[in-house]
């Protein structure tokens, strides 16, 4: 993967060799062990895209099994080798596929690939800083992530297979090597990889927070920050508070697996023989895991909130509706995300009264979420909308977030959850609201900031084809899953045709699988567009979308230090679009009020 | 590693970015121990919990690490007054006390084993394992702290720590006090929950 980084970044920076800052850097410092936040952002993006294709491919493999349960897959033998037994997918490998799909998508793509890319790339550019607070820590963050990627990737090729206990790795299944093939070496590597991943996230998060607090340029108060920066900032805070707890949980699991402790294990019989472990509690792991796990889903979705707010307001040519309410709802969601973790555990035998408390807190999250949705729609309302590819994905995000969010209200009810728990209804819910939605946010970000990253534009027509195929197939995949879930169809089952209750769902499962294959294939259009546009795309201007934020005041390809001259000074908030009386329909943040007397509002006259 | 942004003096809050970063790292370590100690309480409430006496050496260790905080602060104050000789002595004393603390913790583990409280294995109980984890993870962080102090010693020997160059020793002192305070919390926590 590092070789991909080299070739791409090489092309990016060569035309701009003339930047004087570059002269003393050699090849490795510039493109591989770079401390420049823009290069690190691109490294995260490219690694994230590579992971997304691996994760997506794994999901296609298990969709083949679910969609055509009677078929034989001898044609997969060249790829999967021993995992195809007599033309059938090995059942334990099916579980490994599900586990690795979840782990890769949640952590490696939608946490590292999304936050890592856009927080790194945009924070210094949008707050007017030369770089991150510590370029060295930032570089370390990427390379530790890369190391953790390699460990996880290698575990795919172990003879006993990668981890197979689900992405939540609940003990005792994940703690006992004799329980399942995937709990042998694969699980050990999963834990090592995750420990490295957490270190990488903490290094990155410390940097993001410090940079936002300390390195804002003159005039950039917290209430003049673009919503993207607010979202990345709060995401980093969530990560800083939540990831250490996952680290603790993982450490105790490592001790249980490899050092004979009994934190999570008690009174277990395997093959009729009792294990010596006593006194442990598997529920303890669930509490520790979900204390991270729930904030984690907001770590995934909040950067997408920020990106979508920015893309919608720019392309609707209207100020964002309710800027302060947007910040307030982000803060509200951040705070609430820490007090709802037990809604993942309604069926773990918890006290029903405690369940009601968590249900109440969970349902409150609908309020800030609804505020955000209302504000996005109100921003679109009677806007002068430009349907760029990024805008399509941003609007698609709002649609997916609504569809997926509504089922969250259903699942948040402890009584309903007891019925729907671990069915495809849950799968449909979180894939729409955090999986597909966060992907749409990521796509919106890539299409929107591609010109700033690579100095060229992505092809809009291919972008539309990509959007419509993806959008349609996402709904075709996940809408029927709600129906399966209400019928009680359980998730993570390898073979379901043997149950009389479910065996008439063959056609629907085949339909879902075909839609999934369609959606996955559509991503190759994006991949082609992405790589082609890096080298052959239409050359961009410095501010192709006529946007207000600071990154668009840099040269087409910002060099090391971002601004060739002094740092820009900020005079106004980032959303002065279509201001009545203004000469153009946008006023960048760097334009002082004294230059825009025709459009100043009464309270702004004092600032002239 | 030269970072142009520091030179331009656009820092919006008065705090140096590295000081701020260290505070954030401290917060993440606090979260980790918050997870361990709350897991400890939750697990203890469920019963099947081996009760045993804490090794007495832990009290001595607590005094040693508190003393090391005093010498560290002394070193910091000497640096501010450009009293380089005292600075070096106090930093080396801090290292010595830190090592003494770690040796003491090691002895505490030996003490536990003698009283049949094990980390793992068929005779272990989470109550003992938790004690090993809390002291072990704290000990790991203390080793990182010791490395930091040694780095400060090495720059002090090169006369790079003085009243005009306080950043490194400030960060070092902050981290060291935090590690001492963290142990004090763990010790009181273990005393109360035993």
Automatic annotation (TrEMBL), chain A:
Q: Where is the protein situated, by its record's location annotation?
A: Membrane
Query: What parts of the sequence cross the membrane?
Result: 44-66, 93-123, 135-158, 190-215, 227-255, 288-309, 321-341, 353-377, 389-412, 424-450, 462-484, 511-532
- Where in this chain does the record put each Cytochrome oxidase subunit I profile domain? 27-571
> Does the keyword Transmembrane feature in the UniProt annotation?
yes
Where are the coiled-coil regions?
Answer: none
Q: Which GO terms describe its biological process?
A: aerobic respiration; electron transport coupled proton transport; respiratory electron transport chain
Tell me the InterPro entries matching this sequence: Cyt_c_oxase-like_su1_dom, Cyt_c_oxase-like_su1_sf, Cyt_C_Oxase_1, Cyt_c_Oxase_su1_BS
For this record, the Gene Ontology CC terms, alphabetical, are: membrane
Topology in the lipid bilayer: Multi-pass membrane protein
| GO MF annotation terms | cytochrome-c oxidase activity; heme binding
Is Heme among the key words of this record?
Answer: yes
Any idea which UniProt keywords this protein has? Electron transport, Heme, Iron, Membrane, Metal-binding, Respiratory chain, Transmembrane, Transmembrane helix, Transport
One Pfam family in the UniProt entry = COX1
Q: Gene3D superfamilies, per this entry?
A: Cytochrome c oxidase-like, subunit I domain
User: Which protein family is named in the record?
Assistant: Belongs to the heme-copper respiratory oxidase family.
Protein name per the record? Cytochrome c oxidase subunit 1
Q: Which organism does this sequence originate in?
A: Pontibacter ummariensis
UniProtKB/TrEMBL annotation, chain B:
Task: Give residue ranges for domain Heme-copper oxidase subunit III family profile.
Answer: 1-194
| GO terms for biological process, alphabetical | aerobic electron transport chain
- Which Gene Ontology cellular component annotation is one that this UniProt entry carries? plasma membrane
What is the annotated localization of this protein?
A: Cell membrane; Membrane
**Keyword Membrane (UniProt):** yes
Which keywords are on file for this protein? Membrane, Transmembrane, Transmembrane helix
Transmembrane intervals: 20-42, 54-77, 89-109, 129-157, 169-190
Q: Name one Pfam family in it.
A: COX3
Molecular function terms, GO-annotated: cytochrome-c oxidase activity
Q: What is the membrane topology here?
A: Multi-pass membrane protein
Q: Which InterPro entries match?
A: Cyt_c/ubiquinol_Oxase_su3 (IPR024791), Cyt_c_oxidase-like_su3 (IPR000298), Cyt_c_oxidase_su3-like_sf (IPR035973), Cyt_c_oxidase_su3_a-hlx (IPR013833)
The record's Gene3D superfamilies line, in alphabetical order, gives: Cytochrome c oxidase, subunit III, four-helix bundle
Going by the entry's taxonomy, the superkingdom of the source organism is recorded as Bacteria
What protein family does this chain belong to? Belongs to the cytochrome c oxidase subunit 3 family.
The protein's name in its UniProt record: Cytochrome c oxidase subunit 3
